[in-house]
């Protein structure tokens, strides 16, 4: 049960609105720094979109659907004969829910451990340093804070004229809990979320089609050559792509959804049938109900809270971090800002290196990147070199029979300083950490190539790609 607080209680040093990755980390760090802190969360469970209906449940389904697909299609060639394989979707969904519950309860324990108060309720501004809170278990209270941090995250971007019912037309939330495998599953939007959830349901037996307005999948951070390779690998899984296609309307009947679309270049109309449609065209900042206008907090045309380089809003004493403001909508980016904002409040100093924020698409093979892409460097007029190394030439990948993909280095032409790394392949999401560390410390490609990597490991491909960017690889 949520605790209530009298309006005449001593003000908190820090009040955090939102218990997602940015919010709860900000609250924990503030508590560790000795600041009297409270976290207010309206969901009734900590962890935000990431833990409850995003990163964590989707990774559970991605992992378990991959195992199911492997048993059906991969184990026989490895000398493992399995008969009578069946999907128990109910148990798979329960495993997902168990992971979510365990982690959200763990966050609540971390708040207690660091002496952070926790209020379950919806907060809205009553003044620059004052919040009205509608408690989830009934009643209301008022909370005062010397510093207020807005960390309310993001929500699914709506598609004009299309209503999401979470049954036939679903958001990512509904796509995580479908009661049965749909025969035809159409994804509108070829970004990270659409590709991951499309992979899940394809592995479980659905016919999956991805409809994307642009001519490439993955989003703007992915290099063009990596995006093409990713598309080819997903087509091998059986996913169909309709790129350069604009959706005009989505209409549902008793057991079917009809999509009317058109080719962007030719204008040719296309009809697509589905049982379930996933609307995955992006996310937008979640500021509804906060009453930001009461304290004059400025927002831009895209609904993002405007902040300076110390996360201050236009209202003194109020700051904002995470998806609700600028930058990539990533849980780990919000976490870094959560630490920084607590340090700013306590010491006046904090820092996040936005040039070293990795991103991962958890398809199979995984796609990961950090730093600048070739497209960005061309636009900036930076002179650069590239080096690649395929997993087909890596001994561990060959042994594992997982040779799809490559590692690509982008380095400054004159100095060999690492500017960006892109990986498509097994365990790319783990391997990208080495690239992120290299960017954080300003390493050159030669620094990495001269660092001993264990043999046989997938990470040797990382070393070889670094070597290829300034000299020649040794094993290809």
Automatic annotation (TrEMBL):
InterPro entries: Class-I_Pyr_Nuc-Dis_Oxidored, FAD/NAD-bd_sf, FAD/NAD-binding_dom, FAD/NAD-linked_Rdtase_dimer_sf, Lipoamide_DH, Pyr_nuc-diS_OxRdtase, Pyr_nucl-diS_OxRdtase_dimer, Pyr_OxRdtase_I_AS. FAD binds at residues 59, 152-154, 323, 329-332. Residues 12-338 form the FAD/NAD(P)-binding domain. GO terms for molecular function: dihydrolipoyl dehydrogenase (NADH) activity; flavin adenine dinucleotide binding. NAD(+) binds at residues 189-196, 212, 282. It catalyses: N(6)-[(R)-dihydrolipoyl]-L-lysyl-[protein] + NAD(+) = N(6)-[(R)-lipoyl]-L-lysyl-[protein] + NADH + H(+). Residues 357-466 form the Pyridine nucleotide-disulphide oxidoreductase dimerisation domain. Its cofactor is FAD. Its EC number is 1.8.1.4. This is Dihydrolipoyl dehydrogenase. Pfam families: Pyr_redox_2, Pyr_redox_dim. GO terms for cellular component: mitochondrion; oxoglutarate dehydrogenase complex. The active site is a redox-active disulfide bond.
């Amino acid at each position: 049960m949520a605790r209530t607080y009298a309006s005449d209680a001593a003000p908190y040093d820090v009040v955090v609105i939102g218990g997602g990755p940015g919010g709860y980390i900000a609250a924990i760090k503030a508590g560790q720094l000795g600041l009297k802190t409270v976290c207010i969360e309206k969901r009734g469970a900590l962890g935000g979109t990431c833990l409850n209906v995003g990163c964590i449940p989707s990774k559970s389904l991605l992992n378990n659907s991959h195992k199911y697909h492997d048993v059906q299609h991969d184990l026989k060639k490895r000398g493992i004969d399995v008969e009578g394989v069946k999907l128990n979707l109910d148990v798979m969904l329960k495993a997902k829910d168990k992971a979510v519950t365990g982690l959200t309860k763990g966050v609540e324990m971390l708040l207690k451990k660091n002496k952070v108060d926790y209020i379950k309720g919806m907060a809205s501004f009553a003044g620059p340093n004052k919040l009205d809170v509608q408690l989830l278990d009934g009643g209301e209270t008022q909370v005062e804070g010397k510093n207020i941090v807005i960390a309310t995250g993001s929500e699914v971007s709506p598609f004009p004229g299309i209503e999401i019912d979470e049954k036939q037309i679903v958001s990512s939330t509904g796509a995580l809990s479908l009661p049965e495998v749909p025969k035809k599953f159409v994804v509108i939007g070829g970004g990270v979320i659409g590709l991951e959830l499309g992979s899940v349901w394809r592995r479980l037996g659905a016919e999956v089609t991805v409809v994307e307005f642009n001519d490439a999948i993955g989003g703007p951070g992915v290099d063009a050559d990596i995006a093409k390779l990713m598309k080819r690998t997903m087509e091998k899984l059986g996913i169909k792509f309709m790129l350069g296609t604009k959706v005009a309307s989505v209409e549902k009947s008793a057991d079917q959804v009809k999509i009317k679309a058109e080719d962007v270049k030719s204008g040719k109309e296309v009809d697509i049938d589905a049982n379930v449609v996933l609307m995955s065209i992006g996310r937008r900042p979640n500021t509804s109900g906060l009453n930001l206008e009461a304290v004059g907090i400025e927002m831009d045309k895209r609904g993002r809270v405007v902040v300076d380089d110390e996360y201050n809003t236009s209202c003194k004493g109020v700051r904002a971090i995470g998806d609700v403001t600028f930058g990539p909508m990533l849980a780990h980016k919000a976490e870094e800002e959560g630490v920084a904002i607590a340090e700013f409040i306590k010491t006046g100093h904090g820092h996040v290196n936005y040039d070293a924020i990795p991103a991962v698409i958890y398809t199979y093979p995984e796609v990961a990147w950090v730093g600048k892409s070739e497209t960005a460097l061309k636009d900036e007029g930076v002179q650069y070199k590239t080096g690649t190394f395929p997993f087909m030439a890596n001994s561990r990948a060959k042994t594992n029979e997982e040779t799809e993909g490559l590692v690509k280095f982008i380095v400054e032409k004159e100095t060999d300083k690492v500017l960006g790394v892109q990986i498509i392949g097994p365990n790319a999401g783990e391997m990208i950490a080495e690239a992120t560390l290299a960017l954080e410390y300003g390493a050159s490609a030669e620094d990495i190539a001269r660092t001993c990597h264990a043999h046989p490991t997938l990470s040797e491909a990382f070393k070889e790609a670094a070597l290829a960017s300034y000299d020649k690889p040794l094993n290809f």
